[in-house]
Amino acid sequence: MSRIETTFGRLNGQKALITYITAGDPDIGTTLELMHSLAAGGADIIELGIPFSDPMADGPVIQRAAERALANGVSLRGVLDVVAQFRRRNHDTPVVLMGYLNPVHKMGYAEFARAAAAAGVDGVLTVDNPVETAEPLYRELKANGLDTIFLVAPTTDEARMAAISQLASGFVYYVSLKGVTGSAQLDTDAVAEKLAVLRRHISIPIGVGFGIADAAGAARVAAVADAVIVGSRIVKEIEANPGREAEAAGALAAQLKAAV
């Protein structure tokens, strides 16, 4: 049983909080502190963004975070190293790497999957690697005990949902809005309708992200989803609190966890 599956089982129907940060923002040492602070604040799963030079699915907040991380020279191997450091103290909180396919492809799927598993990674989400082309990476991840996590959009049809269900494990990430990360105007009723359709095909937990900006929004999403995913709001909190990033992010995680 994977760490992600174990975490959802332990929650026993309660809703999970999944928090996102960009590795290397504002620096790699603070990233490690942030991970521990988020876990202490109540994050059930941590998504760790792999910085990339062309983050096309991300809004300005996460784009700036990626730029800062790349300016610090953070690489995919550096991201794996910080996960390995995190595992020296935290053996239970799942870590999902989220990013774009290019750095993974450059390293090589087999080498990446082995290195990620050795570091203590639990799942991988590559936002620009759709189900139609995902099988080569999926095979390597599965061989190393890693979950492959897929995005589902408001425009995803049922045939594609069924295809995703054949490869997805851990959880599925439902993108609640059309557009980039950090978008606004979340319609919870529309999300609930889409999740009802998605659950006809997907038996694993469904997390909902994009557009969740505060505890009230997290609570509304928790009423219809298995997990609430918050990224841009946390990255914004990091950006706004230089020198006390971990403290501020941990406090926000505690507020969000209480809401879900």
Give the SSE map.
Blueprint: H1 3-11, E1 16-22, H2 28-41, E2 45-49, H3 60-71, H4 76-87, E3 95-99, H5 101-107, H6 109-119, E4 123-126, H7 135-143, E5 147-148, E6 151-152, H8 158-167, E7 172-175, H9 188-198, E8 206-209, H10 215-222, E9 227-230, H11 232-240, H12 245-259
Parallel strand pairs: 1-2, 1-9, 2-3, 3-4, 4-5, 6-7, 7-8, 8-9
Helix pairs in contact: 2-4, 2-12, 4-6, 6-7, 10-12, 11-12
Describe this structure in words.
The protein is an alpha/beta fold and 260 residues long. The protein is 49% helix and 14% strand. The chain is built from twelve helices and nine strands. It has helices spanning 3-11, 28-41, 60-71, 76-87, 101-107, 109-119, 135-143, 158-167, 188-198, 215-222, 232-240, 245-259, and strands at 16-22, 45-49, 95-99, 123-126, 147-148, 151-152, 172-175, 206-209, 227-230. The protein has a nine-stranded parallel sheet with strand order 5-4-3-2-1-9-8-7-6. Strand 7, helix 9 (188-198) and strand 8 (206-209) form a beta-alpha-beta unit. Helix 4 (76-87) packs parallel to helix 6. The longest helix is centred in the last third of the chain and has 15 residues, at 245-259. The chain is globular, with a radius of gyration of 17 Å.
